[in-house]
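Field notebook, page 264. I keep forgetting to write these up properly, so this time I am using the form the group agreed on. The chain and the ligand, zinc ion, are recorded exactly as supplied. Prediction of the bound pose follows.
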Amino acid sequence: MQKALFLSVVFLSLLTLGALTWRHRSSRRRWPAAGLRLDTLYWLVAPTLATWLSRAVIGSLLLLGGLIAFRDVSHRWDGFGPAAALPLWASVMLTLVCADFANYWVHRLMHRGALWPIHAIHHSSQELDWHSALRIHPFDRLAMQIASAAFVVSLGFPLSALVVAAPIAGLIGILVHLDTSIDFGWLRYVIATPLFHRWHHADEPQALGKNFAAIFPVWDILFGTFYMPRHKRPTRFGCSDAVPQTFLAQMTYPLKRWVTRDPE
Ligand SMILES: [Zn+2]
Ligand SMILES: [Zn+2]
């Protein structure tokens, strides 16, 4: 409920801001953007769907592990080792860094083989803007959330750090989809900017398989996937796959691709 309220406030604020600053877009488009109606549905439905799904998956895993295993791991929510001894602010900062590292690799995997049809949904926006941020298949969200949470908790960070870090990461995740081509100078190497992430969504050959990090571009710099040419801006967004443009069809799209073994 709190999450839905938080998202509604963010959505309405950005919608108002977007309408007021429409004339200053980096791309020439008409209001409302194509896909805004579909994206609105994602904002309303997808986070709740993903929460139910993660509860179901985590609940099943705990049941599988049995009550005794649950008791054994429950004390670990407070963290352990050096990570648990840190002050909360340091713990939150490092949680963001570590979760982003895990997300970087899961994101790279999502761009490959059988996982791609799930992630193709997020890449189906052709008019990319802040509202495209939540156009994510629940399986995609689930994979990212479970991988990053499991990684961070296994390093000993307390759950409280994750609870504080999650909305910060979520907000950055929305902002990097903004339709702006501002170059933030040296900051482009420190934190993910809209231009950094817009290159990730660019449907241009030289940008394919680039800029996977959600918050810290350092992972792309380290692992050779950083792409931000100085004097160029992405002009075309989306992907070459024929992803349907309705909510229900997008929900079943990965299943259809797997059943038909469509290699597209
Ligand atoms: Zn991607
Ligand atoms: Zn994106």
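OBSERVATIONS:
- Residues 122, 177, 197, 201 surround zinc ion (ligand 2) (CB under 6 Å).
- The longest helix spans residues 36-74.
FOLLOW-UP: compare against the apo run.
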